[in-house]
Specification:
Layout: E1 7-16, E2 22-25, E3 32-35, H1 43-49, E4 57-62, E5 76-80, E6 95-100, E7 103-113, E8 116-120, E9 130-141, H2 144-149
Antiparallel strand pairs: 1-2, 1-3, 1-9, 4-9, 5-8, 6-7, 7-8
Length: 161
């Protein structure tokens, strides 16, 4: 079976930066499972998965624009230090959850200037080209429920209670 719309796909991956540094990998753990065509993985990788079959091993280069997008300087925000109540020591690189217009988002402290803290809501991989080594482990047709919900249920997917 080839990967196409409404297929549930499980794959192992190793994600590396342009310099060859490993950013993330499923090796030694469970494969990543997703519903193809539902936008559950970055667009450039999803496009490269079309037509692949179980056992296929291949490399994919995903340009930043087709990965986590380009960096958006509008995602930087100045916040008063007082907004971080209950945190004794603030440091560049610390992650926090913040309430944004579309819900909760992750931010990282990118700079501290006196009583002003600059937080960055860009995805940590925004602006970076991505390099994936992929091994397709399984491909099956999605259930009607999975297709309607837009994600995988059961093994490797979402469990509804």
């Amino acid at each position: 079976m080839q990967i196409a719309e409404r297929c549930v796909v499980a794959f192992h991956y190793t994600l590396t930066a342009t310099n060859g540094e490993v950013i993330d990998s499923s090796q030694g753990g469970d494969p990543l499972t997703y519903l193809h065509g539902a936008g559950n993985i970055v667009p450039g990788l999803e496009a490269a998965m079309v037509g692949r079959r179980i056992g296929d091993c291949f490399d994919v280069h995903v340009a930043a624009v087709d990965g986590y997008g380009e960096r958006d300087e509008g995602m930087l925000q100045q916040v008063p230090r007082a907004a971080f109540q209950g945190v004794d020591e603030l440091a560049v690189g610390m992650n926090f959850q913040a309430q944004g217009p579309q819900g909760v988002l992750s931010v990282v402290i990118s700079a501290i200037e006196g009583d002003t803290v600059i937080v960055d809501a860009n995805h940590p991989l925004a602006g970076q080209d991505l390099h994936f080594a992929i091994e397709v482990v399984s491909v099956r047709e999605a259930s009607l429920e999975e297709s309607l919900h837009g994600h995988v249920h059961g093994d490797g997917g979402v469990h509804h209670h």
